Amino acid sequence: MTSDVKKVVLAYSGGLDTSVILKWLQERYGCEVVTFTADIGQGEEIEPARAKAETLGASEIFVEDLREAFVRDYVFPMFRANALYEGVYLLGTAIARPLIAKRQVEIAEATGADAVAHGATGKGNDQVRFELAYYALKPDIRVIAPWREWDLDSRAKLVAFAEQHQIPIARDARGEAPYSIDANLLHVSSEGKALEDPWAEPDAHVYSRTVAPEAAPDEPAYVEIEFERGDAVAVDGERSSPAALLTRLNEIGGAHGVGRVDLVENRFVGMKSRGVYETPGGTVLLAAHRAIESLTLDRGAQHLKDELMPRYAELVYNGFWFSPEREMLQAAIDKSQENVAGTARLKLYKGSVSVVGRKSPQSLYRQDFVTFEADGVYDQRDAEGFIKLNALRLRLLKMGRG
To answer: Coil, strand, or helix at residue 263?
Structure first.
């Protein structure tokens, strides 16, 4: 079939969906397909994706290691905000999409492609995240979303198409198509199959990055994380790059069963979905960051940040990373981090993370003020007037209404 699309850049993982999409684009649009595979810490070899794309007839193939950019430019800025969607989700999938979309657009411009394509379904959040980023960066870009066009509306039909076109199909240890999995350096998420029943406990084999808490070591582990301007820079005194640091925290947290979340969340498109997330390093990092903020942020700044956080998290979840409002919030958050420096000590034990120590050269904590022992800097009699002034409106309210 001929069309006005001559060349399309496909976000390509090498999995069943995007491999089917590659072949489908060639047949449906009669166009060249350029594949882009990003290494953002999936934890598996990405070179097989290159070989598979060659086999399937991709005209150009881009495979790039973006782990450092991912953590430095996306994960760390988000963690300065302590972002949690609906109080639980550390946004591991959501934060990866703007980076992938940005590189897709750049590759489209470099190769003269007139369209981009993704493998997100018409039911999920990722279609929104990808496409909001595409349009924010290149307003006139043509977007192809096969799941909204084709009639391959089930896993069985995808498998049948793949078999018809001799596309290799990954299967799990039970000989079945695996769970729908998204993985990067921040997290692993699993959805689908038995997990679609929110009452069903996940099978043990769903988890890949964390040991079961009950199987974790009987002795706790202690880890110290150092921060500068709100970003982690060292673990146990050893400085490293952002990606290497998060990799190290994943190893430590995962070994102690830290970071598992079983969540029913509200998707942007309007439905609820159930997912299982593993974010070991991020869970440790969040606890450490809040510990340093507790020492170094003024009360007003700290409370304002906590008020802004749900809005920031929602923007990231919904795909508005490249929006002016997210950038405005980021500027305020980054300003708050200027003096967020110091070291947090954490205790990891059978799935839990506890802050057991924190110190900072920028600390606002003053033992001479807070001590229960005698001091010469705080006049406790001052509290009487403070309380009476704060109580005045309450007294007048009661007096006026009897």
So the answer is: strand
The reply to whether the predicted model has a pTM over 0.85 is yes
Distance of alpha carbon 243 from alpha carbon 90, whole angstroms: 17
pLDDT tens, position by position, 259-297: 999 999 999 999 999 999 999 999 999 999 999 999 999
Domain ranges of the chain: 7-67+94-178, 183-359, 369-401
Q: How far apart are the first and last CA of the chain?
A: 82
pLDDT number for residue 175: 46
* Fold adopted by 7-67+94-178: Rossmann fold (3.40.50)
153 alpha carbon, distance to own chain's centre: 27
Asked if 7-67+94-178 and 183-359 have one fold, the answer is no
Could you give the CA distance from residue 212 to residue 300 in angstroms, rounded to a whole number? 39
Question: Angle of helix 155-164 relative to helix 16-29, nearest 10 degrees?
Answer: 60
Mean pLDDT of 368-380: 81
pLDDT tens digits for 310-359? 999 999 999 999 999 999 999 999 999 999 999 999 999 999 999 999 99
Question: Per CATH, which fold does 183-359 belong to?
Answer: Argininosuccinate synthetase, chain A, domain 2 (3.90.1260)
Are 134 and 29 in contact by the 8 Å Cβ rule? The answer is no
The C-alpha atoms of residue 19 and residue 26 are separated, in whole angstroms, by: 11
Task: Return the ∠ at Cα 188 (arms to 186 and 189), rounded to 5°.
Answer: 125
Catalytic residues: 17, 97, 126, 180
Helices assigned H by DSSP within 221-298? 242-255, 280-296
Q: Find how far residue 179's CA is from the centre of its chain.
A: 19
Angle of helix 299-318 relative to helix 280-296, nearest 10 degrees, comes to 150
Kindly list the distances between the CA atom of residue 32 and the CA atoms of 57, 82, 316, in Å, as whole numbers in the listed order: 9, 42, 32
What rounded mean pLDDT belongs to the chain?
Answer: 94
Cα separation of 139 and 159, whole Å? 35
The pLDDT value recorded for residue 402 is: 66
